[in-house]
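Final report, closing paragraph on structural work. Over the funding period we assembled a curated collection of sequence-structure pairs, and we close with a single example.
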Amino acid sequence: MRDKFNEQLDQLHIEMIEMGALCEDAISAAAESLLKSDPEMAKRAKECEKAIDDKEHDVETRCLRLLLQQQPVASDLREISSALKMISDLERIGDQAADIAELTPYITGDTTGHIGDMARAACEMVSESVGSFVKRDLDMARAVMASDDHMDALFDAVKFDLIAMIGGDSAKGELGLDLLMVAKYFERIGDHATNVAEWVEFSITGVHPQSN
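Its predicted structure, as stored:
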């Protein structure tokens, strides 16, 4: 019975990795569509969002099957319940990548380099947070949580860049607002990756960081 459970748990890990990879693809596609004005990449980000939604359903089904058909011990219950929480955040990451892609047709020419930095940081945070769950690596999860401060600092840098841009040319006000929305979406992706990492800590220790 335990061998069967472990096989199902291994499959859960595989599906979580796949969902995380789809999120990375969505973020990368959204960023490329923005920075290169590439409508095909915007389309790719939206396709990834749909695939993420489908994967969320698959993972949720597997988690419920593990809970109902097996007899998980306390540590297993924490891992499975944490996965159910994580997929909600990963689904929101897909939504926000698609939201960025929706804005890209209205953004031409002027972009800030810090937004590219935010996109790269977001991809790394998502990858590391999911990896920490699969590897049960508490240090990796806590590193993701710590990196949220860096993401916040990048968001502040974007705001200062946009203030300077609009101050130099008031006609760029609408562009500035669109870019600010994009930056906010990337910042929220970082928040969701941090949430994932916090649930990893809970799955390993039994204590959620926010409860301390």
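Residues 43 and 115 are 20 Å apart (CA to CA). The chain has a mean pLDDT of 91. We thank the funder for supporting this effort.
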